[in-house]
Amino acid sequence: xxxxxxxxxxxxxxxxxxxxxxxxxxxxxxxxxxxxxxxxxxxxxxxxxxxxxxxxxxxxxxxxxxxxxxxxxxxxxxxxxxxxxxxxxxxxxxxxxxxxxxxxxxxxxxxxxxxxxxxxxxxxxxxxxxxxxxxxxxxxxxxxxxxxxxxxxxxxxxxxxxxxxxxxxxxxxxxxxxxxxxxxxxxxxxxxxxxxxxxxxxxxxxxxxxxxxxxxxxxxxxxxxxxxxxxxxxxxxxxxxxxxxxxxxxxxxxxxxxxxxxxxxxxxxxxxxxxxxxxxxxxxxxxxxxxxxxxxxxxxxxxxxxxxxxxxxxxxxxxxxxxxxxxxxxxxxxxxxxxxxxxxxxxxxxxxxxxxxxxxxxxxxxxxxxxxxxxxxxxxxxxxxxxxxxxxxxxxxxxxxxxxxxxxxxxxxxxxxxxxxxxxxxxxxxxxxxxxxxxxxxxxxxxxxxxxxxxxxxxxxxxxxxxxxxxxxxxxxxxxxxxxxxxxxxxxxxxxxxxxxxxxxxxxxxxxxxxxxxxxxxxxxxxxxxxxxxxxxxxxxxxxxxxxxxxxxxxxxxxxxxxxx
Length: 565
Ligand SMILES: Cc1cc2nc3c(=O)[nH]c(=O)nc-3n(C[C@H](O)[C@H](O)[C@H](O)COP(=O)(O)OP(=O)(O)OC[C@H]3O[C@@H](n4cnc5c(N)ncnc54)[C@H](O)[C@@H]3O)c2cc1C
What we know:
Helix content is 53%, strand content 10%. The chain has helices spanning 16-42, 48-56, 59-64, 78-91, 93-110, 115-126, 233-271, 284-312, 321-347, 358-364, 375-382, 386-391, 429-432, 438-456, 461-465, 467-492, 497-519, 526-534, 543-554, and strands at 132-134, 150-153, 159-169, 177-183, 189-194, 201-206, 214-224, 229-232, 274-275, 278-279. Helix 8 (284-312) runs antiparallel to helix 9. It is built from 19 helices and ten strands. It is an alpha+beta fold. The structure holds flavin-adenine dinucleotide. The site of flavin-adenine dinucleotide (FAD) has 20 residues, from helix 5, strand 3 and helix 11.
């Protein structure tokens, strides 16, 4: 089984310590227990116990310090960081969030040429500190170009920082807040470290109502020396975007962790509840919702795992991860919402109860598509790759699972963020030809039709400028990329064919749904409508396949896991 089961940790690690980290973390939460977990969530208690555990076991130090700056055992290894992400969110998004914003805060530091700041970060990590990423501003949202935080040179060669940052996680505790701004004299971008405890760092408030601290802070004549400058100009800009490239990937894992725990709670409840003399799970619509939720969750995990392989194998000559990472961000996280919707429709009132994990899941799953660039911002990015993906493939050597215990040093050396339209991809049809299954065949027809649409009914200049039109088209393209990596990994993980075909049952339905949406857009032409109409298809019906997935893979999850009280 692909899903995380805290009672039976089976993930492969080639070193003992990585496995120990995961099992220890699971134990920490299980010992804390569901009652206390929920109580702390309700009372919005700052997670000191968790941070103390992290400090004692040097977890962030080992997981987030590149080997050049840490002792033996330290490395930035996406293979194990994926699972750590998943485990934290499995127990609560807020525990994940303090880790996530530490990752973001460390991005501009590890990408910097400032050795002193890197050594300071490693020392702070060893001492158990958290980090923060000060990019967003209240007025500007996704428009980072309009950043107002400014750094003014002083006659003695130092600088004074002035400005406000908003939505900054860990901004209440981080000794190094990687803060993005502009030089007041020449407008160059700059990243510098600020310390939350300095008297000129005014912590205004927590802008959210939760266990996390998402800070509004103001720097008033905050003194900065050359020692705290992390990067300038193009380097500073690139490290902002390259940090988000790393961070946004983790959001998918948070969705996977949340959905997995919610799934266990939902199936335990539904399969043990009897109405009108029958189990809820005997209703056909309930089994349909569970099979859909399970197939979607499995697909989320297959995709995110495969995207990690491409991220770990990335180099200046292979930047395919720049398509797959935003796909994790926008597709996996929105699929997470879909999974929770399906499960909630089954468990209904139970999902509101204050002693369930589900109640938190239903609230928190909404956050992930909206943070670090909204779904729209990411689709707008994804469509830039569409032409090369469909019409200009390139050969790459085959890529296996990247689970080796090494540093992912390229992530901190990604280079310029330009030239996205030039990135080439391997032929997607290789993955689609790995299987001969009815729903994959139907999905392939849909892809062919989409390609014909792009070639023969190409969106005109006005449509290409219209983000509403482009976003719907982007959803269809994203689904092709999503399916490709799912299939690559289904083969690697030797997934049951019945489940693979069941996954493509929802893929065909989703593709049809997006085609219908684009069909209905005001500017869609008659020719385009003809193509889109042909893309609306029904999945292959196979009750035997469905029954196999339901009875052998989904119902068997009943009573497999329940968090300790
Ligand atoms: C709980 C929480 C924690 C956060 N933590 C941090 C943190 O630690 N550090 C940090 O720096 N930031 C943080 N953020 C900020 C977060 O990343 C931004 O909120 C997010 O990037 C989106 O900005 P916005 O919500 O202001 O939306 P806006 O940027 O105002 O967007 C409004 C609308 O315009 C659309 N839009 C904008 N630009 C484009 C585009 N180019 N293409 C297509 N559509 C577009 C958006 O999709 C959206 O629908 C956090 C936010 C929250 C709520």
